[in-house]
Amino acid sequence: MSTSTSLPAAPVRRSSALRDLAPGVAGMALVGSSVTVSRSLAGAPLFTAQAVRYAAAALILVALARAAGVRLTRPRGREWLWLTGIAGTGLVLFNVAVVRGVAHAEPAVIAVAVASVPVLLGVVGPLLEGRRPSRRVLLAAPVVVAGAVLVEGTGRTDAAGVGWAALALACEAGFTLLAVPVLGRHGAWGVSVHAVWMGAVMLAGLALFTEPPSALGALGAAQWAAVGYLAVLVTAVAFLLWYRTVAAVGSGRAGLLTGVAPLAAAGAGALTGGGLPGPAVWAGLAVVIAGLAAGLRGGADTR
Question: Residues 278, 153: contact at Cβ < 8 Å?
Answer without folding.
Answer: no
